[in-house]
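Troubleshooting log. The previous structure file for this entry was overwritten by mistake, so regenerating from the original sequence record. Sequence copied from the archived sheet and checked twice against the printout by T.R.
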Amino acid sequence: MGRYITTTGTAPTILKEVSANANAEVNDRILADSTGAAFQITLPASNSVLVNDTLQIIDVGGVAGDNNITIGRNGSNINGTAEDLIIDVNGAIITLVYTGATYGWV
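Regenerated output below.
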């Protein structure tokens, strides 16, 4: 059940480089570069995800503390709350796993 980041199997990891607003998909490994400006990455729609679906966001520019990267919840909870997640730590690496409707992405 669910899809997860892997280098084998049927659900390959998809590497994306973003520096402006973008949409995440299951199994994305996103290299987020906010050196130019803060921006938002929107999670997959809540009706399109399965328990154990995974994605990863990496502050590749190392400046999320100054130019925050907002993770838009797109209808799902994040850590059990109906709020977006703000990455505001330089060099952060965030792995999100979908746990179901109650807690959403954790």
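The two ends are 17 Å apart (CA to CA). Archived copy saved in two places this time.
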